[in-house]
Amino acid sequence: MRDSPRWGSTVSTPTRAATGWRPVGWVGLTIGTASAAAVLAGGLAATALPVLLGATVTRAAGDLAAVACVGLALVATLLPLGANRRAPELPDVLRGVDRATVAVAGAWLVLVLLGVGFRAAEAYGRPVGALGATELRTFAFTLTAGRGLLLTAGCAVTVLVCAAVRSRDPDRVPQRVVLVAALLGSLAPAVTGHAGTSADHQLAVVTVALHVAAAALWVGGLGAVVVVAGPRRRLLDAVLPRFSTLAGGCIACVVVSGVLNAVLRVSSVGALVTTGYGWLVLAKSVCVVALGGLGWLARRRLAARRLPVLRWAGVEVAVMAVTIGLAAALTQTA
Length: 334
Fold this sequence. Notes:
- The structure is a single chain.
- By secondary structure, this protein is mainly α.
- Helix content is 80%, strand content 0%.
- It has one domain (10-333).
């Protein structure tokens, strides 16, 4: 990482048009993986297909939107530390990040509100159209999962408002406020979902909170680095070393907390191959191992100056999108 200022001579950066299409592919991978995994893991045994797909898609897309908000806020937080003097385009880039955050947070809020309807239908075992106002109110304000979704919606609104204010006057709201609100919103569904019903409640909540927070910073940060800083070499030189250091700690936290959470949730080793939940845990574990291998290979080739680092980063984010889809399916089968 010491020779990062010379990356521009050996590591090509993609065009803005090329990076602009990548998020579309990542969204497709996440939703497709989540939908297929929820069905294959036996989700139809207790839920009708439209309700299962609706709950899974809104959860997966909502999780991805939350991760995107975390990543955008993280990159915007890291960039000013080392790029002000060398990157005159930085103010315009930060305004663009704020505007993108407004759009993503708005989509996140809509997905969460739609998720309330689908999750309520799943809980009551009815089609969405057959639910009454009383049932929706009971689910949203009485059940833990519903309250978690309302908390997430509140965080999405906070991110939306703060980013909108920042797009007009960045000095009025610190970027770290957006980052904290996005992180809290990404945590809420996880800690109020299957972790909240675990026999070892407190340990399960702590491990899943660490797991989700570290994954959101890692996945969202890398995706934002590729999209925001990737086409701009000077910004990439400034942010990539800092993000690389943070990502190393996040990867370790994801692995350790993921193993602990799986131990708490899977009753036996045999359950890994005899239950839908166990198969999803194995599939997610394979993805995490693949991500670790990709990261290691990217570092080696970067050190040897043999291949553009952003090509490998794009592949990593694609695998991460699949992992988010599997994680969303896990919540539907627990």
